[in-house]
């Protein structure tokens, strides 16, 4: 879906979220800890919420939130982000987007 | 048990005044070791020994001399001393009897507790170390999901002990890396089995899982979202993995850091969940029908708890996986052994704590 891809490319790190979702909040906190200020797009505040949800599910995000995009490419949901981080592969991905100390 | 009586018997045979041993055992000065039967002769023996230190040439001849000396003392003093000795000996025997009885009853109680535990384990109820009956009786409803989990977990712990012993034996016997690899893989898979079991149990009753009631009391002390903190376990294990290469040290440190960051993120997410649940329940339900919507929202929040427990277990699993990649087979085997031993000791500690004698109120 174009809107999803468009939003996903607006910033280096983009998290598709829902304002009531605490796991999305946890993922956002993790990126903050790594010195990144991700763009959080709240689906429940978007008029096209349903289509975007379907699009994300088709791309492989079961939840479908949180859905994390880095450099415009889908990384995955919480599981994938956590696995990447523990394997040491997340930080290299976000290196160019680290702004906070 | 044998040493106090041995000391007792030895002293009697030697007839030597041993204040130090008796004081520490029966907590009262012990004047002389004698029974009503030996009476006078024992006293004589004592005197003989004491005199021997002064004049060794006397030998046995001295004993008859001492007997005369003894007879020359005022008879009432002798009689009084005899009586005092008899009394002291009697009191000592009574104290010893009381002490032995206390030990025997404690032993009996411990055996009974062990049997009770075994009986309940066989019935499929895992109690852990706390003998906390509130979990057993008061819930009323039968939750087959958690009952099944408890039974499975009991088996899991037994299998864990068996595997740990196997690892220990293998490491001591210096088996080949290939054989060790098999044991390491079994060990890892065993942990993965646990996480699978927990995922199923989380769907049945997430509060039960998060309460840690299926674990022993000392383990519960370290509880973080239904289990152990991976970063803390790494801190426990790493010193036991020496020697590590420089690269390994860096890798383990990075893993620890990453895990800590992930744990913090999850903890904060959970806090947010608590806050929003609290806010949901605290909001005023003036408008009719909003009570139901309030409850519906709250129920949705609780569903999210399941995903947090699953994420925490995912973190534990990933930490194990990464460690197995960083370490050599032998190091991984040592790590699994150390981990197994650590949990076993925590469980043993829980049992000891539960069995400790309670002071009367």
From TrEMBL, chain A:
Q: Name one GO cellular component term.
A: cytoplasm
Cite the Glutaredoxin domain residue spans from the record.
13-75
* Locations listed in the record: Cytoplasm
Q: Which residues form a coiled coil?
A: none
State the UniProt keywords alphabetically: Cytoplasm, Redox-active center
Identify the CDD domains for this entry. GRX_GRXh_1_2_like
The UniProt entry, under InterPro entries, shows:
GlrX-like_pln_2 (IPR011905), Glutaredoxin (IPR002109), Glutaredoxin_subgr (IPR014025), Thioredoxin-like_sf (IPR036249)
Q: Which Gene3D superfamilies match?
A: Glutaredoxin
What the record says about family reads: Belongs to the glutaredoxin family. CC-type subfamily.
What is this protein called in UniProt?
Glutaredoxin domain-containing protein
The organism is Nelumbo nucifera
Q: What is the lineage of its organism?
A: Eukaryota, Viridiplantae, Streptophyta, Embryophyta, Tracheophyta
TrEMBL record, chain B:
Instruction: Enumerate the subcellular locations listed in this protein's record, separating them with semicolons.
Output: Nucleus
Ranges in a coiled coil = 96-123
Q: For the BZIP domain, which residue ranges apply? A: 75-119
* GO MF annotation list: DNA-binding transcription factor activity; sequence-specific DNA binding
InterPro entries given in the database record: bZIP (IPR004827), bZIP_sf (IPR046347), TGA_domain (IPR025422)
GO CC aspect terms: nucleus
What PROSITE patterns does UniProt report for this protein, alphabetically? Answer: BZIP, BZIP_BASIC, DOG1
Instruction: List every stretch annotated Disordered.
Output: 45-75
Residues covered by the DOG1 domain:
146-356
The alphabetical list of record keywords is: Coiled coil, DNA-binding, Nucleus, Transcription, Transcription regulation
Q: Does the keyword Transcription apply?
A: yes
Keyword Heme tagged: no
GO BP: any one term: DNA-templated transcription
Which PANTHER family does this entry report, sorted A to Z?
A: TRANSCRIPTION FACTOR TGA4, TRANSCRIPTION FACTOR TGA9
Please state which protein family the record places this protein in: Belongs to the bZIP family.
* Listed name of the protein: Transcription factor TGA1-like isoform X2
